[in-house]
Amino acid sequence: MRILSGILVIYLISIILLSHLTYVAQGRAHYHKRPRRGLSDPPPPSAPVADPPSVPSDPYPTPESNSCVFDVTSFGAVGDGSCDDTAAFRDAWKAACAVESGVVLAPEGGVFKITSTIFSGPCKPGLVFQLDGVLMPPDGPEEWPEKDSKSQWLVFYRLDSITFAGKGTVEGNGQKWWDLPCKPHRGPDGSSSSGPCVSPTMIRFFMSNNIEVKGLRIQNSPQFHMKFDGCQGVLINEIQISSPKLSPNTDGIHLGNTRSVGIYNTVVSNGDDCISIGTGCSDIAIEGVTCGPSHGISIGSLGVHNSQACVSNLTVRNTIIRDSDNGLRIKTWQGGTGSVSNLRFENIQMENVLNCIIVDQYYCLSKDCRNETSAVRVYDVEYRNIKGTYDVRSPPIHFACSDTVACTNITMSEIELLPEEGELLDDPFCWNAYGTQETLIIPPIDCLLDGSPVVEESNDSANYGC
Ligand SMILES: *[C@@H]1O[C@H](CO)[C@@H](O)[C@H](O)[C@H]1NC(C)=O
Ligand SMILES: *[C@@H]1O[C@H](CO)[C@@H](O)[C@H](O)[C@H]1NC(C)=O
Ligand SMILES: *[C@@H]1O[C@H](CO)[C@@H](O)[C@H](O)[C@H]1NC(C)=O
Ligand SMILES: *[C@@H]1O[C@H](CO)[C@@H](O)[C@H](O)[C@H]1NC(C)=O
């Protein structure tokens, strides 16, 4: 690791020197004429290529030739990996925000370090944040300025039609955050110390619409890599997210209260959920994604502290999940209300996955959660053409539905899951789960109940409040 980062530093330094020479030779004006790069560059290698994304529609139909590029180095950014370039980024943002189709450019070769920053709007339409170099935060909690929020780093706020793209890297310098003694198993003797543990989400989009994130490499986040709250119209395409397998809470992409989302042709390896979906999300398409190692694709946890939660209309298709704890998971707490409905999981390849298909309505972080009478209702869920191998430490199919609110209308078709190694486990678990098998399922699943439960079906129209 050390040697590798040593080589990386030397490599970066030589790139910086080289590009500095070119920069001097070509002069400043060069950057102001440069067309938007990255958006048309060939995609990075990634697993099954999905159809051209349709959600949301591309807000930039024609590549404009008169776009205004605001290079952060023209605003004083040094890009040597140690100077604080925050002011330059803020100034370049302000300038680009004020013109139509403005481009904030962090050029190739630069390693820009900035502190926690909120890039806020409203801005003129068509704004692009073009990252071709490396962008990184201060190195760990000790270097983090006292006055800055420790819960977030790059924040995009109140924007409409914004693109964050390029061939560059967002490097999170997460190691020192993962090693905090409060993190799981990082304390004395493998315990977790109590005390403040807040760590920054690397990239957060908040209350923004028509967002496109494309082409970037996003790695080593202190906590979640990317988070969308209260957004509508999100298109993520051809990005690569990576953090070590044992990095705590490093979810790849998290969605909360966000609608109309497409995540395509993206590769995620990390230490927590590959993609996690919280309450208030609907109309989500995930296609051509490769997860692993990771904790899979997860809906939830939902309904904590008796809250209402609603998730609907999600499709996951042509996706690979490998070396993961959990494959496709729905997790809800006891005592919530609301519903999770209209989910479709189709053409999923599993490789050495623990809990390939799991619904857990008894999610609990402590040992003592009581069973309650209400629950987030799970219904209309389809699993089609899901094949591959599971880790035999637990059954590959597990439906633990609420005692009082059954899971209903679960459709299973062409499911074929075999042990990665060891003995076949042919005892899928179901509790209060109703549905149909359209084909023979491997492992055979005898526990799924036919029809629907004969209880207060009359109150269905309320859709459990969603
Ligand atoms: C479901 O979501 C997709 C986007 O993933 C959208 O195209 C479709 O219209 C939605 N369906 C409904 C019934 O809202
Ligand atoms: C809650 O209900 C489930 C299903 O009936 C049961 O297996 C479990 O033991 C119960 N837990 C508690 C804490 O009562
Ligand atoms: C079962 O769910 C599917 C979608 O997964 C839906 O098309 C169908 O109408 C549902 N059936 C019933 C009886 O609600
Ligand atoms: C339906 O459920 C709501 C909320 O739980 C309750 O207030 C209402 O009385 C129920 N209606 C019927 C017809 O059972």
From TrEMBL:
Q: Please give the PROSITE patterns that the UniProt record associates with this protein.
A: POLYGALACTURONASE (PS00502)
Name the UniProt key words of this record, in alphabetical order. Cell wall, Cell wall biogenesis/degradation, Glycosidase, Hydrolase, Membrane, Secreted, Transmembrane, Transmembrane helix
> Which residue ranges traverse the bilayer?
6-25
Region described as Disordered: spans on this chain: 33-63
| Keyword field contains Cell wall biogenesis/degradation | yes
Q: Does the keyword Transmembrane apply?
A: yes
Ranges annotated as biased composition (Pro residues): 41-62
Q: Where is the active site?
A: 295
InterPro entries for the chain: Glyco_hydro_28, PbH1, Pectin_lyas_fold, Pectin_lyase_fold/virulence
Query: Could you state one GO biological process linked to this protein?
Result: plant-type cell wall modification involved in multidimensional cell growth
Which SUPFAM superfamilies does the UniProt entry name for this protein? Pectin lyase-like
Q: Which GO terms describe its molecular function?
A: polygalacturonase activity
Where in the cell? Secreted, Cell wall
Q: Where is the signal peptide?
A: none
Where are the coiled-coil regions? none
Family under the similarity heading = Belongs to the glycosyl hydrolase 28 family.
Provide the protein name: Polygalacturonase
Species of origin: Arabis alpina
